[in-house]
C-alpha cells in the first residue's frame, strides 16, 4: 500500500510503502467451502439471511434500472 504521512502529503514528499501478506485463495471456492461448513453445523453464516435479502433487492434494482434506463427506488 502506498500512502503519504499526514504532515507530508503531496508529490514533493516521499511515499510510504507498506507490504501486507495476503492469503492466496480462490474466493468462490472459499465461499463454497464455508457454505458446506454451515450446512454441516460447523460454522455460523458470515452474512444473515436478512442482509442477503437486502443485497438481492439491490442487485434486482440494478438490473431493472439497466433494463428501463431509469432510477429504481428500493423500499
Structure description:
Belongs to the Gfo/Idh/MocA family. Residues 25-72 form the Gfo/Idh/MocA-like oxidoreductase C-terminal domain. This is Gfo/Idh/MocA-like oxidoreductase C-terminal domain-containing protein. The protein is mostly helical and 75 residues long. 44% of the residues lie in helices and 5% in strands. Strands 1-2 form a two-stranded antiparallel sheet. The two termini are 38 Å apart.
Number of helices: 2
Whole-angstrom Rg: 21 Å
Query: What structural class results from the helix and strand content?
Result: mainly alpha
Mean pLDDT: 94
Helical content class: 40-55%
How are helices and strands ordered from N to C? EEHH
Number of strands: 2
Name the strands of the widest sheet in spatial order.
Answer: 1-2
Beta-strand content estimate: 5-15%
State the shape: flat
Number of domains: 1
Distance between the termini: 38 Å
Which keywords apply here?
75 residues, mainly alpha, two-stranded antiparallel sheet, 2 helices, 2 strands, 44% helix, Gfo/Idh/MocA-like_OxRdtase_C, Gfo/Idh/MocA-like oxidoreductase C-terminal domain-containing protein
Furnish the topology, listing elements before pairings:
Blueprint: E1 2-3, E2 16-17, H1 27-39, H2 49-68
Antiparallel strand pairs: 1-2
Amino acid at each position: 500500500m502506498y500512502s503519504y504521512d499526514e504532515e507530508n502529503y503531496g508529490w514533493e514528499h516521499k511515499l510510504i510503502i507498506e507490504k501486507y501478506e495476503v492469503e492466496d485463495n480462490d474466493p468462490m471456492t472459499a465461499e463454497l467451502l464455508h457454505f458446506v461448513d454451515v450446512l454441516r453445523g460447523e460454522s455460523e453464516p458470515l452474512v444473515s439471511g436478512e442482509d442477503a435479502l437486502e443485497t438481492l433487492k439491490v442487485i434486482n434494482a440494478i438490473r431493472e434500472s439497466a433494463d428501463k434506463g431509469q432510477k429504481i427506488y428500493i423500499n
